[in-house]
């Protein structure tokens, strides 16, 4: 009887210990994007230099129907084509710009654009 009572008490303690306090959620590590203050004007400056001014996406029947001739058109394009834009512009394997003799965007620039998009494209 004592043994049965001891086992019952031990089981009760284990159950109570497991349900009484739960482990807190692990803290999400901060990233550079979390603290970055990236604004639309800076991103559009990069896009203008790399995509619009090189006559790739200036509007008016441009390649791939991507018209980046204004910030609003850039934002509309990203909103309508988020996966395609990420694949071609901000992913590790992105290949834009594709003009012969120009280097693709640097990893830091891609990260900045991706961060800006992930934050809702703040102005």
From TrEMBL:
Top-level division of the source organism's lineage: Bacteria
Entry keywords, A to Z: Signal
Organism encoding this protein: Chitinophaga skermanii
Range of residues in the leader sequence: 1-17
Top-level taxonomy: Bacteria, Pseudomonadati, Bacteroidota, Chitinophagia, Chitinophagales
Name of the protein in its database record: Cytochrome c domain-containing protein
